[in-house]
Write a structure and sequence with these properties.
By secondary structure, the chain is an all-alpha fold. Helix 1 runs antiparallel to helix 4, helix 2 runs antiparallel to helix 4 and helix 5 runs antiparallel to helix 7. It is elongated. The chain starts with 12 loop residues before the first helix and ends with a helix.
Length: 169
């Protein structure tokens, strides 16, 4: 058990790299969604953007919001290998300066990794399913490549979570 006088061992190098990789898995798809929100030609015509995605309009806010939330959640993986995953940063009201109970980090991270595997594993088969019929040109393949890193997010988070748990038990 980690205490103030008995700190946890530092995260192994592989776990630090895996945490950084997990944080980067959301970037390619997020950039594509932001381009979509800006109305750039990323596979859909103007009519499809307006009718199916409500872009411009609230649809743009939704896809940018999804990108921001996804990246923020992926960045939380870094807390499993950084000091702020062991002690709440002082600038956070009420909780600042308190130690993070290991299970308070492990349980949400483990459940999150399971959810991510469930949600994104289907993208392994991207090229075996029909895509949105309005997607034009090579964009179906490009989007597949941009979404493939998300398949790794869950397993990377799971590995880093196991490392965190072992260091803090």
């Amino acid at each position: 058990m980690t205490t103030a006088s008995n700190p946890a061992a530092p995260a192994p190098r592989w776990a630090v790299r895996a945490a950084h990789a997990a944080a980067l898995t959301t970037v390619p798809s997020g950039l594509w969604r932001i381009a979509l929100a800006l109305g750039l030609p990323v596979g859909y015509g103007d009519q499809v953007l307006r009718q199916d995605f409500h872009i411009p309009g609230w649809g743009a806010v939704a896809v940018v919001g999804l990108s921001v939330v996804s990246e923020a959640l992926s960045l939380l993986t870094l807390g499993l290998v950084r000091p702020w995953g062991e002690v709440v940063p002082r600038w956070i009201p009420v909780l600042g300066g308190r130690r993070v109970r290991p299970l308070a980090a492990v349980i949400p991270a483990a459940l999150g990794s399971l959810a991510l595997v469930y949600v994104w594993s289907g993208f392994l088969f991207w090229w075996n399913v029909d895509h949105h019929p309005a997607m034009t040109g090579p964009w179906g393949d490009i989007v597949g490549v941009l979404y493939q890193p998300l398949v790794l997010w869950g397993p990377l988070l799971a590995a880093v979570t196991v490392s965190y748990y072992r260091r803090h038990r």
